[in-house]
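Data availability (excerpt). The following record was deposited with the supplementary files.
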Amino acid sequence: MSDLWQNRILFTALVAWAIAQGLKVPITLLAKRRFDFMRLVSPGGMPSSHSALVTSMAVAVGRVKGFASSETAIAFVLAFVVMYDSAGVRRAAGAQASVLNQIIDEVFQAGHIREERLRELLGHTPIEVFAGAILGTVVAILMRL
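Predicted structure:
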């Protein structure tokens, strides 16, 4: 187990994830003119920490194992699946949550049910995914592997 914490590929991926999560607070401040420290722990937003994590992992695996290796191919396939899910399936779930929240608002106004809101920001826009992928690539290139 102690070897796991010595894994440079894992460390690189975690650094990219942490940077992406940390950037969400100042980016939200610039875009919406308000501090939102919940952005540090919530999904969605700019840049995609999911994309940064898996892209930095894939690039780091490529740098360590070689870009023609089976391990690198597996890492890139995983990265593409995660990014597709982040921008596609999870974003659609967020849109559905938004519609359900509107329905809940309307029914709640009539006094028939108690209000319980769903989380709407689940996924990412394609630009958020792209920005996370760029961030992950840059972090993996800059890390000493």
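Summary of structural features: The mean pLDDT is 84.
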